[in-house]
Design brief:
single chain; 146 residues; mainly alpha; 5 helices; 82% helix; 0% strand
């Protein structure tokens, strides 16, 4: 297995585990009538898939100029500008699914906002796994964040 494949596999595994744990927290706080164990893994997998699909579509269509323009001079700024808003949308979708209500998507209640911000923090923290692997193995991963 080459270095990029190994780092990507570890990254995807870490993302899945983190997403399962954060979705479980959301289920415990906001969910009703869910089988916790089944829903935890199902929602974690859905969140990973959602990140891949939305991340690729949005990053490719709208964010590529921002990333290309800032990635060499201000890479952290490019990361925040692109990925934080995308993740807000992704975690809002997850909240709507967990609450079984479209209101979950637009809710500005402190608890739901805190959960979404926590989800963004979880997503960004797990990206540190990728950053560490890339740095350690001195490889270029491309755009594989989700």
């Amino acid at each position: 297995m080459d270095k990029l494949a190994l780092v990507t596999l570890v990254y995807a595994g870490a993302k899945f585990a983190a997403y399962c744990l954060w979705c479980r927290r959301g289920l415990e706080r906001f969910g009703r009538n869910w089988n916790l164990n089944r829903a935890t893994f199902g929602l974690g997998a859905f969140r990973l898939l959602l990140g891949i699909v939305l991340g690729l579509i949005i990053a490719r269509l709208f964010a590529a100029p921002i990333i290309d323009g800032l990635q060499h001079t201000w890479p952290a700024l490019a990361y925040v500008i692109v990925f934080v808003p995308i993740r807000w949308i992704e975690w809002s979708i997850m909240l709507a699914i967990i609450t079984k209500s479209a209101r979950g998507f637009i809710s500005l209640e402190p608890g739901s906002m805190a959960w979404r911000i926590g989800g963004i923090a979880v997503s960004c923290a797990v990206d540190a796994v990728l950053f560490a692997g890339v740095s350690f193995f001195n490889i270029q991963p491309g755009r594989i964040f989700c």
